[in-house]
Write a structure and sequence with these properties.
heterodimer; A: 188 residues; alpha+beta; 6-stranded antiparallel sheet; B: 195 residues; Immunoglobulin-like; 2 domains; 5-stranded mixed sheet; 4-stranded antiparallel sheet; rod-shaped
Chain lengths: 188, 195
């Protein structure tokens, strides 16, 4: 085969590759017909918002028990205020445009050095008016639903009770209780 | 006497420092989902506001479910003055680096690959959480309290279907042909020169 024939073969192969790789080669991509309508985009932006706040008793004093002794059972936290409204509450701001569900969890058991008070000994209840010991459940390390569908401007009240095992070591026991608000209907 | 009591009460209310201010955080959002391409950076806009009586330093973060799979770039801590309404919320961007999640089916070492999306789209669900750092105060003995506001976030990662690409094969064949032609051409040329 002479060099001219070889070059021809190469060019044919090249042309074949181009035709295979560009399947739309030779197609007419021009717009035909006459446009009779105009399309305009439209959009609507919806913003949701809510704010929650903790009462002064929660943010300044925290949830405290004074004068606990080993063996004490279901002792009221200092701010429970059984005679009236609990000092522990979360308020949904009146300017919120959604209702709010509230959730509660503990960061850890009450801990002092190496000693802990079991989570089962730390009880809480919530209510929009009057939380009760009879409805109280043990705090957990994962968020648990408190009250739901809190309307903007309203508050959710909490009470806390602590039992101290008989053999509990002396110490200053601490942890963190977290309150989280979510739009009503969303999971904690 | 009565008027004295009233005046005294009013003075007490005015002069005693406000120890009953509420402290919390608010969040404003316009989207609970994002449909994104893999291997791209994505930023979502949120607003943090504070209609309450005390200033806060707030931060926007994400729940563990999103942290584990999507690299979240640090969101800034913002100072939000007391009595900041939602209409003046402080804008905060939450940015993610979306990883490559769909594995291409390649014939040879990263070339001649296709993506059939046969396993469906990958979704990640979690929460965006606004926490007001000013809400946590040491209680001494007992529990401190924190307050946060959260909104759900679902990130769906687009799978772009792609047929197997043979361009590398074509280029390889072309190069091979050119090499063969080149060798033959120069070999022949050398023969003619030597003759």
């Amino acid at each position: 085969m002479n060099s001219n024939n070889l070059i021809a073969v190469v060019l044919i192969i090249l042309a074949a590759l181009v035709l295979i790789y560009y399947p739309s080669f030779g197609k007419n991509n021009e717009l035909t017909g006459s446009a009779t309508e105009i399309q305009v985009g439209s959009s609507a932006l919806i913003a949701n918002y809510f704010a929650i706040a903790a009462s002064n008793a929660l943010t300044t004093d925290g949830i405290k028990w004074s004068g606990l002794n080993p063996g004490d059972v279901d002792v009221n936290a200092d701010g429970n205020n059984q005679a009236g409204t609990s000092n522990y509450f979360i308020t949904v701001s009146s300017d919120s445009n959604v209702n709010v569900d509230l959730c509660v969890k503990a960061s850890a058991p009450l801990t002092s050095g190496l000693n802990t008070i079991p989570l089962a000994s730390y009880k809480w209840d919530s209510d929009i008016t009057n939380p009760l010991l009879t409805s109280a459940i043990a705090i957990d390390l994962v968020y648990f639903g408190a009250d739901t569908n809190i309307v903007p401007g309203n508050s959710d009240y909490y009470r806390f009770w602590l039992s101290v095992p008989g053999s509990q070591a002396a110490g200053t026991y601490t942890n963190t209780i977290s309150f989280k608000g979510v739009q009503t209907g969303n999971v904690c | 006497m009565k008027s004295k009591i009233i005046i005294f009460s009013l003075l007490l209310i005015l002069l005693v420092p406000s120890g009953f201010a509420l402290k919390g955080v608010g969040i404003k959002w316009t989207s609970e989902s994002a449909y994104v391409d893999e291997k791209t950076p994505v930023c979502l806009d949120y607003g943090i506001y504070n209609p309450w009586d005390e200033d806060i330093n707030a931060q926007l973060g994400v729940s563990k479910e999103l942290q584990e799979v999507i690299r979240v770039k640090e969101s800034e801590t913002v100072f939000v003055k007391a009595n900041t309404p939602n209409t003046n919320s402080v804008p905060v961007k939450l940015c993610f680096d979306i990883p490559k999640v769909y594995k291409d089916d390649c014939l040879i070492a990263g070339i001649m690959c296709e993506q059939t999306c046969s396993l469906g789209e990958v979704n990640y669900k979690g929460e965006v959480i606004a926490t007001g750092s000013g809400t946590e105060v040491s209680a001494g003995s007992g529990s401190t309290a924190t307050v946060s506001a959260s909104v759900p976030l679902e990130i769906r990662i687009k799978c772009n279907q792609q047929g197997r690409s043979y361009i590398e094969l074509y280029v390889g064949i072309l190069i091979l042909i050119l090499i063969i032609v080149g060798i033959m051409f120069f070999t022949r040329r050398k023969k003619y020169v030597n003759v």
